[in-house]
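Example record for the data management plan.
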Amino acid sequence: MTADCYFCCHIFIGEKMIKTIKKYKAPYLFILPFFILFLVFQLIPTVWTFYISLTKWRGIGAPEFVGLDNFRKMLIDGMFWEALWNTVVYWLTGLVLILFLAILIASLLNSQLLKGKAFFKTATFLPNICAAVAMGLIFRMLFDENVGLVNEVLGKKIPWLASTAYSKIPVILLIVWRNTPWYTMIVLSGLLNISPDYYEAATVDGANTYQKFVYITLPSISNILLFCSITLTVDMWKIFNEPYILPGPGTSNTSLFQYMYESGFNVFNMGYASAIGVILIVLLTIISLVQFIVRKGGRETVS
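Corresponding structural encoding:
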């Protein structure tokens, strides 16, 4: 193909793109603000984070390129591994408990036997709109070793926030209490979209409640559960407020996101904090891909 042909092709493609943009200019204008905000507040900061992770920088002055030194330091940093382990504990326990409670509560709210659904839906969602700091202070009082209500009910003097054996329990309970309502509403929206005809047909065939739940309800909301698991995974790996408000002895409750913040804004080691951020991005990407693959494999097995 000659140079003239290439030139003509480029002109044709360019004119076609211009015509397409002119034809659909209104939709493009509507989505333009999103892409501008995404570029300014997501893409550029992410690229900048990857660059800073390869430097030594204290937030002012010119960054000094150090290559992979920050990542090498991470391998021998005991605090990093402790924060990583704490985050894994928060993630796994939170994921299981929140999804279990969300499905359970959503099923109860969707029950035909429940009266006053509007009231119970509102009451269920209230913990999600309460300020995290205020709820953290309340939980701190509830789990106080000397005057806490929890110890009064149990009749024991358990050092919930002063012992490494118990310090994560109040944090996990606060995480579950604050996040369950949001995911309950999402699961409930999926349950409301299931046609009653499926359950009526199953009843005619002699299916019991358990069989209806396993073979109708769960498959019907599987995509919603996948969405919940991915968004919940991201939320759990970015957990900050709860372990910050309910600190255990030393660094026993410190999350990876919290350690990244402290490295950047307390120690002013922006390069190392950015390296932790890069590790978070990589881990979340891998976990999300695994969840997609598992979901796809499960769908193929069922089909």
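Summary line stored alongside the record: The chain has two domains: 17-56, 78-301.
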